[in-house]
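Propose amino acids for all 272 sites.
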C-alpha cells in the first residue's frame, strides 16, 4: 500500500521542546512557533509561569503542551527522556553581573549551575532521545556574551563562553548519529532579563568596601537604555529553529554580528 504523506511531513512541521519558555525570548518563540502550526512543548521553571502560559495558549486557541520543568531539578529533567520531539531548544538561563574580582563566588556558582551544568544535563538527555531516532537537532540559546566580553557582565559571559564550547564539541560528536547542533546568539534585547541582572549587583555591592568604582558600573549599565525590540529576535528564532539547514551560529541582529566580528579582530591584535 502506498504510504500516505502526513501533514507534518508535507509542510515541514516539527515537534519542538523548549526550556525556559515561561518568559522572555523563550516564551515569545514558543508562541510564535505554535502559531505556525508546530507542536510546541513549552516548559517553565515555576508552576505560576506554567499557569500563565496555559492561560495565554487557551486564549489564542493554541494546542501547546506546557510542563513545569526546572532544569536544576532531577525529577523535572526526567520529563525530557519521556517526551518525543524533533528539536530541543536549551533556552533556560539566569543572568547576574558584577566585577569578576569581587562578586561573591556563590553567585558565580549559581550561574554555572543553571547556565552550564543543568543546561548540559538537559542537552545530554535530549541527545540520547535524538540519537535513538538517528535524527533531530539541539539548539543552545547562547548570547553575544558567548563570543565577546563586557566589563561587569563577566559571570554570565563566562557561562555563555562555556556553552559555546559545549555546542561546538557536541556538534562534532553527534553529527555521526544524524543529530544537528547549533547556537543562537541574541544581542541585547529588552525583555527585562538584562535589567534584572543589573539590579542584582546592588544587593551585595558596597562601594565603601569594594574597590571597583560604583560610577564605572553605572556607566556600563547606561547601555541598557539602548536595547533592541525583543519581537525582532523572537521572529528570527521562529525562522531558524524549525529549519532543516542553517548556519551553526546565528547572531542577531546584523549590527551585533558586525560588532562582534570587529571586536574579535581587535582581540587578536591587542597587546597588554
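Proposal:
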Amino acid at each position: 500500500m502506498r504510504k500516505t504523506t502526513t501533514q507534518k511531513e508535507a509542510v515541514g512541521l516539527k515537534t519542538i521542546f523548549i526550556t525556559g519558555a515561561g518568559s522572555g525570548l523563550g516564551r515569545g518563540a514558543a508562541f510564535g512557533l505554535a502559531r505556525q502550526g508546530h507542536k510546541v512543548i513549552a516548559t517553565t521553571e515555576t508552576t505560576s509561569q506554567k499557569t500563565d502560559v496555559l492561560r495565554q495558549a487557551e486564549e489564542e486557541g493554541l494546542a501547546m503542551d506546557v510542563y513545569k520543568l526546572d532544569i536544576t531539578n532531577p525529577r523535572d529533567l526526567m520529563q525530557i527522556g519521556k517526551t518525543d520531539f524533533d528539536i530541543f531548544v536549551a533556552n533556560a538561563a539566569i543572568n547576574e553581573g558584577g566585577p569578576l574580582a569581587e562578586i561573591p563566588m556563590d553567585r558565580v556558582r549559581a550561574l554555572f549551575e543553571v547556565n552550564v551544568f543543568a543546561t548540559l544535563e538537559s542537552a545530554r538527555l535530549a541527545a540520547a532521545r535524538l540519537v535513538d531516532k538517528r535524527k533531530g537537532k539541539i539548539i543552545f540559546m547562547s548570547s553575544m556574551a558567548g563570543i565577546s566580553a563586557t566589563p561587569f557582565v563577566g559571570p554570565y559571559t563566562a557561562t555563555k563562553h562555556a556553552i559555546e564550547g559545549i555546542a561546538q564539541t557536541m556538534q562534532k560528536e553527534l553529527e555521526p548519529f544524524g543529530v544537528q547542533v547549533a547556537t543562537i546568539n541574541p544581542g541585547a534585547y529588552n525583555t527585562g532579563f538584562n535589567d534584572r541582572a543589573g539590579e542584582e549587583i546592588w544587593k551585595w555591592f558596597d562601594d565603601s568596601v569594594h574597590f571597583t568604582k560604583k560610577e564605572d558600573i553605572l556607566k556600563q549599565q547606561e547601555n541598557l537604555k539602548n536595547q533592541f525590540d525583543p519581537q525582532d529576535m523572537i521572529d528570527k528564532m521562529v525562522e531558524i529553529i524549525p529549519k532543516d539547514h542553517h548556519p551553526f551560529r546565528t547572531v542577531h541582529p546584523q549590527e551585533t554580528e558586525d560588532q562582534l566580528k570587529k571586536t574579535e579582530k581587535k582581540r587578536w591584535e591587542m597587546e597588554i
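The longest strand covers residues 179-186. The first helix runs from residue 7 to 11.
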